[in-house]
Amino acid sequence: MMKQTFVERLGFGVTPYAVIIWRDGDEAKSKTICYDELEVQVALAMHADPKGFYHQYEPKVYYTAQSEELIA
């Protein structure tokens, strides 16, 4: 099971929904920026494909703080 980690802000003016760091052991190999949950799920589906590039790496998902959506 993947542990979810939350970060305050990333990017330049536009806050992504999540960032996936693709790791090989302790080494980061690639990064995927996701702007909604659908993009996160599509990226993680690439990891599940045994023929895909990302299958060889372990994903670590960092969700950004979405404070604007919490205002009622």
The whole-number mean of residue pLDDT values reads: 82
Order of helices and strands: EEEHE
* End-to-end C-alpha gap: 32 Å
Strand content: 25-35%
Largest sheet data: 4 strands, mixed
- Give the neighbour order of strands across the main sheet: 1-4-2-3
Briefly summarize what is shown:
The protein has 72 residues and is an alpha+beta fold. 17% of the residues lie in helices and 35% in strands.
Can you describe this structure?
The protein is an alpha+beta fold and 72 residues long. 17% of the residues lie in helices and 35% in strands. The chain contains 1 helix and 4 strands. It has one helix at residues 37-48; strands at 5-7, 18-24, 27-34, 58-64. It has a 4-stranded mixed sheet with strand order 1-4-2-3, covered by helices on one side. The model has no long low-confidence stretch (mean pLDDT 82).
Q: What are the SSEs and their pairings?
A:
Blueprint: E1 5-7, E2 18-24, E3 27-34, H1 37-48, E4 58-64
Parallel strand pairs: 1-4
Antiparallel strand pairs: 2-3, 2-4
What characteristics describe this protein?
72 residues, alpha+beta, four-stranded mixed β-sheet, 4 strands, 17% helix, globular
